[in-house]
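Following up on my earlier thread - several people asked me to post the actual chain instead of describing it. Fair enough. Here it is, all 332 residues.
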Amino acid sequence: MVNYKRLAANDINEAEKLFRACQTDGFFYLDLYDPDDQIVLNSVDDVYALARSLFTLDDAEKLIYDVDKLGEMKLNGYIILTAPILLVNSPRGRNIGGLNSKRDGFESYAIAQNSILFPSQLHSLHPLLLQTSLPLLTTLTDNFQAILTTLLTSLSTSLLLPSSATLQSFHRPLHPSSSILRLLHYHPLPAAERGPPQTPHTDLGTLTLLFSQLPGLQVLRPGPAAEWAYVLPQPNCAIVNVGDALALLTGRAMARRFSVAYLQRAEDQTKLVPVQSPLMEERTRKEKGVVESKSEEDGVTSGEWLRKKFSVLRGEKVDEGVLTGSKQTLVA
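Reply from S.P.:
Thanks for posting it. Predicted structure:
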């Protein structure tokens, strides 16, 4: 568990814990408790309440904001549940699910960071309930950005990155990116329909902040006897997951319930090739005896990777490499 308050104060031990967790497990608990500042945790509680209100809207109203109608990048809008409790003629879930012949087992709503930072987009793309919640969404987004910038700054220091190519320099809040806030609602299902609601996959962004009140997230433990294990929610903590973009930028040195997730993604034009870190170069020498050189022309951009990933998640293409962030899929 990484303590955010100590990490923000440049505590060396917390920085080492963060670096080690990203290298080994690829996920970690981030303790956000601060007796002097409860704004983040209070805002998360308020967003849980907002999610409950949002998902109780009529399906017809939610489907006005169907995610596939609001843009190619799927950054804003609603995805309806696939479950037997819905009418036969209702639209099904969009992404491939964790059960054979099933689609994803939850409904969700995405709000692009750009929609929150530029309110004119929020008013044109989302229902009134979200429009009137703009102060809450702005507060939450600003705080999540500050938290993630602190994490990336610490990792950049641990990786000895030059000031001209730090991880945080690819994640400037006011520059176009595909970062989103996602609200998720998992419905109870009959026993015959139960199973993993999502197909095994890696997150396509840089870092994901996940808040959940009940267990649900599973991770594949590293090692020869790899097994899926539940990640249990902890009080006052976010679960932070390392995504494809951070793995690629670091040359793979990093490994009914409601959920709130903030998915940080690099700026759209960022080339997903390894940044120049002496620590990563030394690791490559030890493992392969040679340092691979990747030019910016070799890599896909963050925006291109998003499109590839969604194509596979929708079942439009079959590509296990894209689904799991495999290295050989990264040439544009």
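The first strand starts at residue 2 and ends at 3. That should answer part of your original question.
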